Amino acid sequence: MSPRRTLFYTHLSFLVALTLSIAPFSDELIIYNPQWLVLVAAYWGIFAPNQTGIITGWIWGLLLDVALGTHLGIHALSLSLVCYMTVILHQRLRMYPLWQQAFFIWLLASLDKIVVYQLVNIFSPQQALYDYWMSSITSAIFWPVTIILLNYLRQKARV
After folding, report:
1. Which of 13, 65, 100, 123 has the highest CB neighbour count under 10 A?
2. Which residues form the domain of 30?
3. Nearest to 55 by CA among 102, 30, 87, 96
4. Using one digit for the tens of pLDDT, what is the confidence trace for 81-136?
5. CB–CB of 111/89 below 8 Å?
6. Tally of structural domains, the chain
């Protein structure tokens, strides 16, 4: 498989995740929207750590910052931390059963939320309610679905 084709499918999945992250939902459902970029970054960091890394997380985090209109670098820092954690722990995470991987994804999604919350509080203090943390839980719930879909893409593309 050529490196260009591998990068194409990797970044295509990131583009779909970015689109799902900024897709408009109703106010009641927006709190349950999983952190799609965290899920995709974690998947590629665990199962193809040579194709993704901290720079990939930083670039897609910056694109999310631009798309959401937040201060530049907030999501970039949090997503690069997610990529760093998954790349350095990818050999262990591959051996874990799915429920332990989902627990780790919950921790990563919560870390992402904590970093974003703390950086946003620097510019405009706010209080995080329980609604703020719901997307971390739904991200852990959607982890098996993410693995199934991206494994299918990886097998079809021979990545």
Report:
1. 13
2. 3-157
3. 87
4. 999 999 999 999 999 999 999 999 999 999 999 999 999 999 888 887 788 889 99
5. no
6. 1
